[in-house]
TrEMBL record:
Keywords for the protein's UniProt record, in alphabetical order: FAD, Flavoprotein, Oxidoreductase
GO molecular function: flavin adenine dinucleotide binding; oxidoreductase activity, acting on CH-OH group of donors
Residues given in the record as FAD binding sites: V104, T108, V254, W553, H554
Top-level taxonomic group: Eukaryota
Family named by the database record: Belongs to the GMC oxidoreductase family.
Signal peptide limits: none
Glucose-methanol-choline oxidoreductase N-terminal domain: residues covered: 102-125, 293-307
Record organism: Canariomyces notabilis
Keyword Magnesium on entry: no
Cofactor list: FAD
Protein name: GMC oxidoreductase
Length: 627
């Protein structure tokens, strides 16, 4: 494939959309996000393989809101965010939640909060028990290691004070994503381990090695030398941007996958896309790979005629491959943020939002010495079984309600029940503590001099499941298009499964209070500010949880692997091939069959590394059989 030479000033090659469409690639990747750029980089390691990537967003290289760790969150709602929202959620008193997703080269890895962690062994062994061969912990561990370059902390004093502990055998040291312990910590972190220890929670010295249960200090996807975010663009794309066989086109939105039919068999042969108002079709010799994420991979399948026949016919899309699982099985992490008033003398990240001079000084410090508040991420974490957090009677009553839920198919019910067994020792709930107010529903008076801290609480294995589907066609009768935002309905706290989630979250909120009121953390906490102290009974707290729960931005499952039930339970097989279509895979967060306990990005990178390896295995096998 002849390719125009890269421009000297831009990290992306100057290729026009017409030139891109004029190429026939071996592999076409839709979405240059977290997973998409991993697959692109790995496939193009072989110079004989040509790879094209279409990304709807622009390039954000050098953007401070992306690069500077302490500015996490500042790009939400910006041009780098798709700015999705859920449909009204009856379980949340009718509220619609904002659902940010990265619309930029690097996708959501450019927007996320850089937390880098892994779930427990049992989470992946559950995927394998569902019949997804090779997706157990032992199958994924090599890919976690392959993706990361872990940097050992050098400062012995910080290692000791901040408990920078890890199992050296569990981490990767030569992968593309740079991960490290922070050099500076929030003033509250020094109290974290001792406080949890007072509550009977042990420090987990090997939290990346197969169990995340316990208290530990978190890592970040940050380059320790430059102290800038390490994400899929800088880790996987930029080092390989000069490859002649890898072409990325940004600001290019894919409308649908082109499918052709021969004797009843559908094959993906390319995609239709738009760029600067021009419409094009580009062909793929071997495969189209959807890496558009949990919201948009199912959207593109549906727009291409793969999905639930009722959804497609309401949207005016002709049905090609019927599969009612497309867009279903949506599982998200939800979170509540309890706010405490704290000692105002402590350096607080809210200072940078309220005080322009403080923000300028912090920026100056970061620019000149890569130090100060803009290097700090929230790193005080703890994962616990619900049995550690609630009374024995409450636990028993939750377990008996769980036993009454019948919706799950195959092994899924047994797996979900076992997660609640105290002997399973799983991180069903995550707590995170940091200074600053994280609750969008809490709006204190900025002039009263009071300062706040947040105890976040995140449900790791939600029982409720929702869906993401394309909307029906418009009033003018025209077919639904890619620009029509998908209907995101996570069904938070809805129905018997959702109500169980709500009660778990409410019971667990009492423990957030306990954490903040236990010494030594209690020494910096003055009172609970939100919910106010007089919200003390279960029913009142439950109402507060309904009215303040937000997403933790971790949706999965909408193109999940079907395991031993195949198309009856999922969208892709365990080699990530879309059921019923040749030459089409999905590689991103949407393929996870069951939600995991942990933040998602490290796992998405590992999935993409594993997906790329499988694609290359198939490529080599086919070439071998031809030769
Ligand atoms: C605010 C926020 C904070 C988070 N914080 C953390 C954290 O601290 N730690 C952690 O582990 N995880 C975190 N996550 C989650 C994690 O970042 C995501 O789960 C992960 O990045 C998803 O990767 P993906 O490859 O599935 O999708 P994405 O990275 O979103 O990639 C999808 C790509 O496809 C592109 N695309 C979509 N549709 C089209 C189309 N039609 N045509 C062309 N391109 C298209 C998108 O623009 C995007 O670039 C956070 C998420 C959010 C939103």
């Amino acid at each position: 494939m002849a390719r125009p030479s890269p421009s000297s000033s831009l990290p992306l090659p100057c290729i026009s959309s017409a030139e891109f469409a004029g190429c026939t690639f071996d592999y076409l990747i839709v979405g240059g996000g977290t997973a998409g750029l991993v697959v692109a980089a790995r496939l193009s390691e072989d110079p004989a393989i040509t790879v094209g990537v279409l990304e709807a967003g622009s390039v954000g290289i050098g953007e401070p809101g992306i690069d500077v760790p302490g500015l996490y969150g500042s790009t939400l709602g910006s041009k780098y965010d798709w700015q999705f929202a859920t449909v009204p959620q009856p379980g949340l008193a009718g509220r619609c939640l904002p659902w940010p997703r990265g619309k930029v080269l690097g996708g959501t890895s450019a927007l996320n909060f850089m937390t880098w962690n892994r779930p427990s062994r049992q989470d992946f062994d559950a995927w394998e028990r569902l019949g997804n061969v090779g997706w157990g912990w032992d199958g994924l561990l090599p890919f976690y290691k392959k993706t990361e370059a872990f940097h050992h902390p050098l400062d012995n004093q910080s290692k000791h004070e901040n408990k920078l502990l890890y199992d050296p055998d569990a981490v990767g040291t030569s992968g593309p994503v740079q991960i490290c312990y922070a050099t500076e910590y929030s003033p509250s972190h020094v109290f974290w381990h001792a406080t949890l220890s007072s509550l009977g929670v042990e420090t987990n010295e090997a939290h990346l090695a197969g169990s995340n249960v316990g208290v530990w200090t978190n890592l970040g996807s940050v380059d320790p030398d430059s102290l800038v975010r390490s994400y899929s663009t800088t880790a996987y794309y930029l080092p390989n941007a000069s490859r002649q066989n890898l072409v990325v086109l940004t600001d290019a939105t894919v409308n649908e996958v082109v499918l052709s039919e021969h004797e009843g068999q559908w094959t993906a042969t390319g995609v239709r896309f738009q760029h600067e108002g021009q419409h094009h079709t580009v062909l793929a010799n071997r495969e189209v790979i959807l890496s558009a994420g949990t919201v948009q991979s199912p959207q593109l399948l549906e727009l291409s005629g793969i999905g639930n026949a009722d959804v497609l016919s309401r949207a005016g899309v002709p049905v090609k491959v019927e599969n009612p699982n497309v867009g279903e099985h949506l599982q998200d992490h939800i979170m509540v943020a309890t706010i405490f008033e704290v000692d105002p003398s402590l350096a607080n990240p809210d200072d940078l939002k309220l005080d322009k001079a403080a923000a300028t000084a912090a920026q100056e410090l970061y620019n000149t010495s890569k130090s100060g508040p803009l290097t700090i991420l929230p790193n005080s974490v703890c994962y616990l079984p619900v049995s550690h957090v609630v009374s024995k009677e409450t636990h028993e009553s939750l377990v008996s309600r769980l036993a009454g839920l019948t919706e799950y198919a195959g092994n899924e019910k047994a797996i979900r029940n076992q997660r609640f067994d105290p002997s399973a020792k799983l991180g069903q709930i995550e707590y995170m503590f940091d200074l600053g107010n994280w609750n969008p529903a809490f709006t204190p008076d900025p002039s009263d001099g009071k300062k706040y801290a947040t105890c976040l609480q995140m449900l790791q294995y939600p029982y409720s499941k929702g869906s993401i589907h394309i909307p029906p066609k418009g009033p003018d009768g025209s077919q639904t298009r890619v620009s029509d935002k998908p209907l995101i309905d996570p069904k938070y706290y809805y129905g018997p499964h959702g109500e169980l989630d709500l009660d778990i979250m409410t019971h667990c909120a009492f423990f957030a209070d306990k954490i903040a009121k236990t010494k030594p953390l209690a020494d910096i906490v003055r009172r609970r500010a939100f919910p106010p102290e007089d919200v003390s009974g279960f029913e009142d707290l439950r109402d507060w949880v309904v009215n303040t729960t937000i997403t933790d931005w971790h949706p999965v499952g909408t193109c999940r692997m079907g395991g031993s039930l195949g198309i009856r339970a999922g969208v892709v097989d365990d080699r990530l091939r879309v059921y019923g279509v040749r030459g089409l895979r999905v590689v991103d967060a949407s393929i996870m069959p069951l939600q995991i306990s942990g933040h998602l990005q490290a796992t998405v990178y590992a999935i993409a590394e594993k997906g790329a390896e499988m694609i290359l295995e198939d490529y080599k096998r086919d070439r071998g059989s031809v030769m």
